[in-house]
Amino acid sequence: MALISILGGGESGVGAALLAKSKGFDVFLSDAGALKENYQQTLHENQIEFETGEHSVERILASQEIIISPGIPEKTDIVKAIKAKGISLVSEIEFAARYTKAKIVAITGSNGKTTTTLLTYHFLKSAGLKVGLAGNIGQSFAKQVMEDQHDVYVLEISSFQLDRCFEFKPDVAVLLNITPDHLDRYEYQFENYIASKFRIFQNADAHTSCVFWADDEVIKAHATTIPTSARLKTVSFHTKADAYITADSIQFEGAALTLADAPLKGPHNAINMAVAILAAHEAGVAYEQILASLPLFENAPHRLESCGTWDGVEFINDSKATNVDAVYYALNSYKQPLILIMGGVDKGNEYEVLDPLVKEKVKGLICLGDDNSKLESHFGGIVPQIFSTRVIERAIIKSKEWAKPGDVVLLSPACASFDLFKNYEDRGDQFKNIVKQLIHG
């Protein structure tokens, strides 16, 4: 019996182990860290051997194929040893896609992919299709493929997952945008990260719809690498594309969305909605049906999420905005004066791109982090007032002191959260809970 090893015992790894076992492989799961209790129980129940706290290198190198978690960097010793031996090393996405005949919509991009994935899933589900949600979101793709209950899958795909995809060919391949991110995994070479994102299109043919934002400068510069046989579907502000975004609407062939009626606001969300509508249409749903279901959509938390209004001041949780580009999109979403809360673990951010929007819209900056010196020095001459703190409640109370009725307090950090919080969700949840307590006394 051929041996398949799984590196990493999170959601994707355990799901891949279950699928491999169901297909008759001898399966061994290895995680250098600790496994959650529920995952250990699942592996025990399915008689899948596993180890934690180490990698048994000899056993792993005896595998016919190895499925790797996206969280494991390519530069680790175990990955170097696998490559040196020439063993097939693939992602859960690559492995699971071999075993399904369901239609696949795969979505990648540096920003906005979760919102776009959830929108596309919502459109397909509202149309009555049996839809699976997976990739970076939802349950393991491999586990869902094993259970075989869906007609179509909507997958949010990261660059790390794409790095280990070789034959993967989605029916609808979506690329939203490309801005510098995760460069520590790509030898600090932006071109390497770009190449990773473009792997979403690498196997496209005449049966593939390739949906992308045509105004993105990086995508535009590399669009000639998309296979010429593919069906190209574009979103643009500037040209008569398949989805043409104007100041007040998105125009499709024979259909239109009035942006004032849309549940998501801001130019970046116009792009996300246009892309998701195109993707759902390419997956077989009529525009009329898609647009009818849009008002019922609720976005994921921590993405420009309204937390309520306190004395006429609206509080917005955008904790997911962990890079500068995401903050740029957030600032562009509001015409009202803003009190901006930023800060956390700086990832080598260059804040200059924000300067014009900050000058125009931000009446006060609150820095929330262990070390706020970079934010203070950069924005000191740009905003009228700055306040620094390590305590989120103090940040919220100070923002309320500065704000007037009609203003917006925006938590959009541009930074990772690990200095003061467990993760961006914890940061956003604390913000929401404190705001709600203060509103309701």
UniProtKB/TrEMBL annotation:
GO terms for molecular function: UDP-N-acetylmuramoylalanine-D-glutamate ligase activity. Pathway: Cell wall biogenesis; peptidoglycan biosynthesis. PANTHER family: UDP-N-ACETYLMURAMOYLALANINE--D-GLUTAMATE LIGASE (PTHR43692:SF1). The keyword Nucleotide-binding applies. Signal peptide: none annotated. Residues 107-280 form the Mur ligase central domain. InterPro entries: Mur-like_cat_sf (IPR036565), Mur_ligase_C (IPR004101), Mur_ligase_C_dom_sf (IPR036615), Mur_ligase_cen (IPR013221), MurD (IPR005762). Keywords: ATP-binding, Cell cycle, Cell division, Cell shape, Cell wall biogenesis/degradation, Cytoplasm, Ligase, Nucleotide-binding, Peptidoglycan synthesis. This is UDP-N-acetylmuramoylalanine--D-glutamate ligase. It catalyses: UDP-N-acetyl-alpha-D-muramoyl-L-alanine + D-glutamate + ATP = UDP-N-acetyl-alpha-D-muramoyl-L-alanyl-D-glutamate + ADP + phosphate + H(+). Cell wall formation. Catalyzes the addition of glutamate to the nucleotide precursor UDP-N-acetylmuramoyl-L-alanine (UMA). Residues 302-415 form the Mur ligase C-terminal domain. HAMAP family: MurD. ATP binds at residues 109-115.
